[in-house]
Design a protein that fits this description.
The chain has 2 domains: 83 residues, Arc Repressor Mutant, subunit A, CATH 1.10.10; 87 residues. Helix content is 66%, strand content 7%. It is built from 8 helices and 2 strands; from the N terminus they run H-H-H-E-E-H-H-H-H-H. Helix 2 packs across helix 3.
Length: 182
């Protein structure tokens, strides 16, 4: 389960609550590893139970207490071990491509509408990765941590540029078929 390593890595930077973790994931790695609140809290519970995290309650008046999580030495060792191992290259999975593959019997207008919606979503992700907010986090690539952030963002930007080019190409080709059917 990759999420546990993500949580260990983020908490190694600084102690956080589950809510803080969710927001950090949303503002950093969400474009390539989205996680739900329930997944995060389930992982926090498991990591606490196995001794990889410590939790300290922060008493708040008039509001529920906060649980701040900190990585233990055991958690740091587990994270370092995982970071040092080569990873298995994952198979590419895309619900969109499955839908497109099986849409052969649909009207071309429906296929084009799906491609347009997909393009809009990819464009939103591209806009986020090329936003000032993201650029400001990778502005000084002299430090290794910022350089790593920068090259991970570059991977996302380049992948999205390719995906957007492919979508435009696919739409043009389907439009050609649609015109000849007309």
């Amino acid at each position: 389960m990759i999420l546990k390593y993500i949580i260990l890595a983020l908490l190694r930077m600084r102690p956080m609550t589950g809510y803080d973790l969710q927001k950090k994931i949303e503002s950093t790695i969400n474009y390539f590893w989205p996680s739900t609140q329930s997944q995060i809290y389930r992982s926090l519970k498991e990591l606490t139970q196995d001794g990889s995290l410590e939790v300290k309650a922060e008493i708040q008046e008039g509001r529920p207490n906060k649980k701040n999580y900190t990585v233990t030495d055991r958690g740091k060792g587990e994270l370092d071990g995982w970071l040092s191992r080569p990873v298995d290259i994952p198979n590419h999975r895309s619900v969109f491509l499955v839908q497109l593959f099986f849409s052969k019997n649909l009207d071309p207008a429906a296929i084009l509408a799906n491609l347009k919606a997909y393009e809009e979503e990819m464009a939103k992700r591209y806009d986020f990765l090329t936003s000032e907010e993201v650029r400001s986090r990778t502005a000084d690539s002299r430090k290794l941590s910022r350089l790593i952030n920068e090259i991970v963002v570059e991977n996302g930007v380049m992948a999205l540029e390719t995906e957007l080019r492919w979508i435009r190409h696919a739409r043009e080709r389907i439009n050609q078929i649609a015109r000849t059917r007309g």
